[in-house]
C-alpha cells in the first residue's frame, strides 16, 4: 500500500489501535487520497481513538497543503446588529429599540475601514443581521431615509465605498440571499460566506436553537450556497458545533456541503466553529463543546474532504487552539489587529505575532492571504469578480499570497 509522504508510525498507530476493521480500512483509504463513504464517516465520528484520527488528518493536510497555515488580516465591520432571526445562542443581535441597536452610517463604515487600512489589513469583513427590514418597519424606514430599499442594497454601496476609499477587499456575510442578491453583491466582494451551521431541520423545531429563526432553515441556506456556486462566487461555509445536533447530523452536514462543492467547486473553506454560551441568551447555560469534541470534527472534516479543501477553526474561541494544528486545519480565518470579534466579544483574537509564534512552534509557517484564497487567484480566475480582478492580482505574489505580508 503506497501512502506518499506518510511515516511508518502511522501504520503502527493504526494497526495497534483498538479500531474495528471497517474504521481502519476507511482511514487507510483516506491516506491514499480516496474518498470515504458517508457510512464510513458515521463510524469514524464515534471512534474514541482521537489520536488516530488526528494523525491521519495531519498527514492528509501535510501532503496537500505542506507546512503553510494561512490567515486573513481583516477589519470587522458590523453593518447592523438588527436581525429577523432570533437564535437561542446569539448575543450579537439587537431589537430595534435596544440602546445598542445600530445600522452603521457610511461615515462610521468608512472610519472602521480606514483604521483597518492603516493597520495593513486587506479584508473588510461585513457581518450583519439578516434582512431586518422584513420584520421591523422601523428598519425599513431607516433604510429609506438612507436612500435604500433593502439591507443587501445598502451593503453593496458600503462595499463599494470601502473599496474606493481604502482599497480593502470586502467579504460579506449577510445571511440567506436570493440568486439575484448574490449576483448583485458579487461584483463588490472578493468572496462571500454563509455558515450552514447544520443541515438538521430538527434544530428549527419548538425549543430548538433556531425555533424563531426563519433564515436558519437548512433548505434556504443550502439554496444560497448552491446559488453562489451557480454564480462562481468563492464561498465560505461551515458548521457550528455544540448547539444540540447529533453526531450523525454533523456527518450529514459535512456531506451536504461536499455534494454542492462537487458540482461547482466554489467553496473555498469550511469553518468548524464551536458554540460559546452568551450571558442573557436562552442558551446561556447550555454546555459548550470541549476541545476534544471540536478537534474530532476538524479531523473528520479533513478526512472527508481530503487535501484540497481549506479547513479553518477560529483561534479566539478556544484556549487550546494550537491543538487544531494537529487535527488538520490549514487556516486560522480572519484576524483583526484593530477591532474585536463583535459576534464573540468575550473572545479576543490572538495578537498576530503570538499566532505566528504558536504556529511556528508546531512546525508551520504563517502566511497572509486575501479574503479570497490563493488557489482561486492562481487557478480559478473565472471565479474572481471582474471589476476587482486586476486589483486582486496586484496585491499578491505568484503563489497568490499577500505580498510582503505583515505579521
Brief sketch in words of this structure:
This protein is α/β, with parallel strands linked by helices.
Describe this protein's structure:
- The chain is an alpha/beta fold.
- The chain has two domains: 8-60, no CATH class; 68-395, Alpha-Beta Barrel (TIM Barrel), CATH 3.20.20.70.
- Helix content is 39%, strand content 14%.
- The chain has helices spanning 8-16, 21-31, 38-44, 50-65, 106-118, 137-146, 151-166, 179-186, 218-230, 247-264, 291-305, 352-361, 374-379, 389-395; strands at 68-80, 123-128, 169-173, 191-193, 235-241, 267-274, 310-312, 331-335, 365-369.
- Strands 1, 2, 3, 4, 5, 6, 7, 8 and 9 form a nine-stranded parallel beta sheet that branches.
- The longest helix is centred in the middle third of the chain and has 18 residues, at 247-264.
SSE map:
Layout: H1 8-16, H2 21-31, H3 38-44, H4 50-65, E1 68-80, H5 106-118, E2 123-128, H6 137-146, H7 151-166, E3 169-173, H8 179-186, E4 191-193, H9 218-230, E5 235-241, H10 247-264, E6 267-274, H11 291-305, E7 310-312, E8 331-335, H12 352-361, E9 365-369, H13 374-379, H14 389-395
Helix pairs in contact: 2-4, 4-11, 5-7, 9-10, 10-11
Regions with pLDDT < 50 over 5+ consecutive residues?
A: 1-6
What is the annotated CATH architecture of the largest domain?
Answer: Alpha-Beta Barrel
Q: Level of helix content? A: 25-40%
CATH topology of the largest domain: TIM Barrel
Beta strand % = 5-15%
Radius of gyration from CA coordinates: 21 Å
Number of domains: 2
The helix-and-strand class reads alpha/beta
Main sheet specs: 9 strands, parallel
Query: Order of helices and strands, N to C?
Result: HHHHEHEHHEHEHEHEHEEHEHH
Number of DSSP E strands: 9
Overall 3D shape: globular
The number of distinct helices, counting runs of at least 4 residues, comes to 14
CATH superfamily of the largest domain: Aldolase class I
How far apart the termini lie comes to 41 Å
Q: Specify the CATH class of the largest domain.
A: Alpha Beta
Mean pLDDT: 95
Amino acid at each position: 500500500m503506497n501512502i506518499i509522504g506518510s511515516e511508518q508510525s502511522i501504520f503502527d498507530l493504526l494497526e495497534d489501535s483498538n479500531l474495528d476493521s471497517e474504521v481502519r480500512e476507511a482511514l487507510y483509504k483516506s491516506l491514499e487520497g480516496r474518498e470515504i463513504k458517508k457510512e464510513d464517516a458515521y463510524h469514524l465520528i464515534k471512534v474514541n481513538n482521537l489520536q488516530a484520527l488526528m494523525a491521519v488528518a495531519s498527514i492528509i493536510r501535510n501532503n496537500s497543503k505542506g507546512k503553510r497555515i494561512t490567515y486573513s488580516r481583516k477589519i470587522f465591520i458590523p453593518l447592523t446588529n438588527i436581525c429577523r432571526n432570533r437564535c437561542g445562542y446569539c448575543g450579537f443581535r439587537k431589537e430595534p429599540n435596544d440602546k445598542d441597536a445600530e445600522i452603521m452610517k457610511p461615515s462610521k463604515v468608512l472610519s472602521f475601514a480606514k483604521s483597518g487600512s492603516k493597520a495593513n489589513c486587506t479584508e473588510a469583513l461585513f457581518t450583519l443581521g439578516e434582512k431586518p427590514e422584513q420584520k421591523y418597519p422601523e428598519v425599513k424606514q431607516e433604510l429609506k431615509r438612507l436612500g435604500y430599499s433593502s439591507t443587501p442594497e445598502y451593503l453593496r454601496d458600503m462595499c463599494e465605498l470601502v473599496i474606493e476609499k481604502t482599497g480593502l477587499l470586502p467579504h460579506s456575510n449577510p445571511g440567506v440571499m436570493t440568486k439575484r442578491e448574490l449576483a448583485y453583491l458579487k461584483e463588490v466582494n472578493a468572496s462571500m460566506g454563509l455558515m450552514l451551521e447544520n443541515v438538521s431541520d430538527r434544530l428549527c423545531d419548538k425549543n430548538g436553537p433556531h425555533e424563531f429563526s426563519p433564515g436558519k432553515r437548512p433548505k434556504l441556506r443550502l439554496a444560497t450556497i448552491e446559488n453562489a456556486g451557480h454564480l462562481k462566487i468563492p464561498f465560505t461555509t461551515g458548521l457550528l458545533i455544540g448547539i444540540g445536533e447529533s453526531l450523525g447530523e454533523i456527518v450529514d452536514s459535512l456531506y451536504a456541503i461536499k455534494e454542492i462543492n462537487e458540482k461547482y467547486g466554489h467553496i473555498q473553506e469550511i469553518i468548524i466553529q464551536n458554540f460559546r454560551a452568551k450571558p442573557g441568551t436562552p442558551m446561556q447555560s447550555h454546555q459548550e463543546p470541549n476541545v476534544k469534541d471540536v478537534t474530532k470534527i476538524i479531523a473528520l472534516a479533513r478526512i472527508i474532504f481530503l487535501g484540497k479543501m481549506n479547513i479553518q477553526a477560529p483561534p479566539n474561541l478556544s484556549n487550546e487552539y494550537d491543538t487544531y494544528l494537529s487535527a488538520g486545519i490549514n487556516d486560522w480565518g480572519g484576524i483583526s489587529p484593530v477591532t474585536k470579534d463583535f459576534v464573540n466579544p468575550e473572545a479576543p483574537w490572538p495578537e498576530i505575532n503570538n499566532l505566528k509564534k504558536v504556529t511556528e512552534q508546531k512546525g508551520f509557517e504563517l502566511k497572509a492571504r486575501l479574503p479570497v484564497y490563493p488557489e482561486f487567484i492562481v487557478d480559478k480566475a473565472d471565479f474572481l469578480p471582474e471589476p476587482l480582478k486586476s486589483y486582486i492580482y496586484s496585491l499578491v505574489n505568484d503563489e497568490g499570497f499577500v505580498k510582503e505580508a505583515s505579521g
